[in-house]
Structure formats: C-alpha cells, structure tokens
Amino acid sequence: MDRTALAEFLRRRREELRPEDVGLPSGPRRRAPGLRREEVAALASMSTDYYTRLEQRRGPQPSEQLLAALARTLRLTEHERDYLFQVAGRNVPPAGTGGDHVAPALLRVLDRLQDTPALIVSELGETLVQNTMAEALFGDRSRFTGLARSEFYRWFTDPDERRCYPEADHDRQSRAQVANLRAAYGSLGPRSRAGELVDALLRESTEFARLWERHEVGKRFADHKTLLHEELGEIEVDCQVLFTEDRSQALLVLTAAPSAEATLKLQLLGVLGNQRFGHPAHDFRQPILGRDPAHDAAERRGA
C-alpha cells in the first residue's frame, strides 16, 4: 500500500469536484476548493475520521468495498478506479466483470434527477445506484447479495419481485428479463456471472427454462409501463434509457405519463418516500386513496 500516493490522489480528486457534481447544493461560498472531507465520507458511507486519516497518510488499508464506494463518490473513470485499487494495495477488479463501478457520465445525470424515479443498472440487472424517488417506488434494490443482486434472478425465484407490476404484464416482463439476460450471456460468455445466473435459473425455474429455449435476445425496457405502489395504487410512467458506450450499464428514468393523475401520484411519491402506513392487504390495482390524493396525503401527515 502506497499511503502517500493514495492520500495525494484522494485529495486531488476531492478538490476537483464541486458539490453540484455529486448532487449536493452548492450552499454558501467555500474557502477551499472542491468537496469537504465530511461530504466525501458521508457519500461513501464511512466515518469522517477514517477518510481524514487516509488523506493524512496514516489510515489502515481500505477494503475493496470501501475503495469501490470512494471510486463512485469521487466520480472516477475506470482507469482512475484501477489506479486507486493499485495504490491501496488491492487487486484491480478484472476487466469486463462490471462489478460495482458506475460510469461517471451516468452518475452526473442521475445526480440531477431529484423529482422523478431514476436508477442505474448493470447488464446483469443489478441496481448499482438509485435515487430517493426510485427507492420509494421499488424499495432498496441495492440491499441484495449473491445471485439475488440480479433482477433477472429475483424475477423468477422471488414472488415479491413481481408485486410492482400488474399480473397481466407478468408474461411480457418475463420475456424481457430473459431477452436481457441472453444479451448479457452472449456478451460475457458461459463462464461469466451471466453464465452462473443462467445455470442457476435453469435449475430453479421451469418458466425461465421454457423462455430460454425461445432464444430471444435484446436489451428491452418498455417505453410505457404501469407500476404498482402500496399506497398510491397504479402509476403509469414512461421509461427512458441512457446506455454507456459499451452498453454494460443503463440509466433508467421514469417520468409521469401525460395525465394529471400520473403526475400527481409521482409528486405524492416524493412526499411519501419510504413511509408505509400499515394498511391491511388490498388489491394493488385499487389505490387506497379514497378521496382527493392531496387531501389524503395531508391527512396522513397530520395536517
């Protein structure tokens, strides 16, 4: 581990970033350039003291998980990410494996999307980053581990994964999931994580095995879809997709369909966040909002 090189690299990259580059308000005038140490630490989910010690050349060797978090926070390119791992004395993630590194260009766009659901996914259907609105709509998709990190795997093995979609749309979604995974399988090969997912799903899901035999290929994201939310019922959205140049990652942006109801429900989603109000189970197609949605939301907040 080269503590001097690591400290200088972190400091330089931190000073080159502006708060707005990482989705933070610029706030009052700053005496020093770039982000503050406590801001980097908070964004990377580590203590300020730990990060400060790294910049002061006296910190312990950071784990690969922490290095990946720092690479994302500092908006490092893939080459810069590799250098960070090298000077920290860790193995560089193998080329072509994806991993948790997020394309800085996609992150810059995501940082500016605060009022509509948006998330960045890998070619294996892993949610790498999601904004607050996306978490309110889908839940925290970054919490999964192992094969379950992949939406493809969860769709065919975890019934809860389908609760966000009307039952009438399940067949179309299943075909899209398989087509996306086959595209990744063709790109990464049978000995990759894509191959591991395919082998597992062929063993565990007869539905997947049947659809896999169709040999449908393509990175499919429906332009228009209906999603289900526990509190708000059906929400119609349009999905726009921005790919990296190698198409290994995609930024999905969900905007309200052109109707007053859809727009209002997305606004309410921002208000509700991840709150749940303990209502008994109900048909997702029937929103629990019995009157005017704005009135119900205000009533829940105790207005």
UniProtKB/TrEMBL annotation:
Basic and acidic residues: compositionally biased ranges: 292-303
Positions of the UniProt region annotated as Disordered: 283-303
Start and end residues of each HTH cro/C1-type domain: 9-81
InterPro entries named in the record: Cro/C1-type_HTH, Lambda_DNA-bd_dom_sf, MLTR_LBD
Protein name: Helix-turn-helix transcriptional regulator
Species this chain originates from: Prauserella alba
